[in-house]
Amino acid sequence: MTDVVQRGLWFEEYQEGTRYLHRPGRTVTEADDVVFTTLTMNTQPLHLDAHWSSQQGGFGGQRLVNSMWTLSTVVGLSVSQLTLGTIVANLGFTEISFPNPMFHGDTLYAETVCVGKRLSKSRPGQGIVELEHIGRNQKGDVVCKAVRSTLVQCDPEAGGAQNQ
């Protein structure tokens, strides 16, 4: 019998320009938004107060899903396919934007493009992979974009890319 362990990609397996589609998506509920918003101490009524939101002119009087939930979930949707057990650390995020809102009942789909990679100069057996995460709602509208720099393990079976 052969054992297969689910994992993310080793450094060598990332290919620049490859787009990874993360499925299934995740439908956001009112409970998701309220719990996340209160756990993070974000008291913005735009997320918590239906009456207040209904009195405002924008977004059809609807509450918006907390954008940090959206960003966190876009990254989370990528984990099992890309970084599960192979990431060493997140190094940082840049170019974060939320071009369209998410509402309760919307479904979030994520995709990631590998936009760059290089071996680490200071950490043998590891490499830096730059990923562009994109979140889309069920209509295909982009609701989140972020570029993330990660430190990833090289494949130990391939000699850890120490000679590349």
UniProtKB/TrEMBL annotation:
Known Pfam families for this protein? MaoC_dehydratas
Q: Where is the MaoC-like domain?
A: 16-134
The Swiss-Prot or TrEMBL record describes its family as follows: Belongs to the enoyl-CoA hydratase/isomerase family.
Q: What is this protein called?
A: MaoC family dehydratase
